[in-house]
Specification:
Distance between the termini: 22 Å
Order of helices and strands: EHEHEEHHHHHHHH
Helix content: 55-70%
CATH class of the largest domain: Mainly Alpha
Number of helices: 10
Radius of gyration: 17 Å
CATH topology of the largest domain: Glutathione S-transferase Yfyf (Class Pi), Chain A, domain 2
Number of domains: 2
Low-confidence stretches: none
Mean pLDDT: 98
Length: 208
């Protein structure tokens, strides 16, 4: 499997985390996104949006990090990254949509404003208003996650793609000093995620 990714990319790290947890045999192919390698004709044939990450498995091409992880979880079921029941898989999908549509968009302006490594890599334009709006949105979303983690280590009881989805952008805002103390279950959950060997390998691959 050819895994295309870019440096200092939360979405790339999410896919790397899921693929490594699944035990997928990867050939990492790092693209220099700052130099525009993701806009080359060769890569646009893999992902016409020119975004990272993407996966090529033989003749099969796939982009979008959660779709990549779902494919890996289905292809390598022994990793048990998806529940066995249709209800359980629907609940995992719910968390993936919540992450992609709400939580990650709120995190992005926060870590752009606070994370020194992100700033050094991407040199984003300052936007304090966007960062403040992101914090306000997170104040709406984090209690939902904190409540869901009551009495359990992982969002759906057993470790799954639901958990994988949140690790990268929470790691980036945490590194920038975001205060998780009002959400102790989320903080403990993030610590468990970041302690997983697969996360550490993914972070070394993408975020170092």
């Amino acid at each position: 499997m050819d895994f295309y990714f870019g440096g200092m990319s939360g979405n790339s790290t999410r896919a790397a985390f899921g693929l490594i947890e699944a035990g997928a045999p990867l050939t990492p192919r790092r693209l220099d996104t700052r130099a525009g390698e993701n806009k080359s004709a060769a890569y646009l044939a893999v992902n016409p949006m020119g975004k990272i990450p993407a996966l090529v498995d033989g003749a099969f091409k796939l982009w979008e990090s959660n779709a990549i992880n779902w494919y890996a979880a289905e292809k390598f079921p022994a990793a048990r990254l998806l529940p066995g029941s249709i209800e359980g898989r629907a609940r995992v999908q719910r968390w993936l949509f919540f992450q992609a549509q709400h939580v990650t968009p709120a995190c992005i302006p926060v870590f752009r404003a606070t994370n020194a490594r992100v700033q050094a890599f991407w040199n984003p334009a300052p936007d304090p208003k966007a960062a403040e709006n992101g914090r306000k949105e997170l104040a709406r979303y984090l209690p939902v996650l904190d409540d869901a983690l009551a009495g359990r280590e992982w969002l759906e009881g057993d470790f799954s793609l639901a958990d994988v989805a949140y690790a990268p952008h929470f790691a980036l805002i945490g590194e920038g000093g975001f205060d998780f103390s009002p959400y102790p279950r989320v903080r403990a959950w993030l610590d468990r995620l970041l302690a997983r060997p697969a996360w550490q390998k993914a972070a070394e691959m993408v975020l170092s």
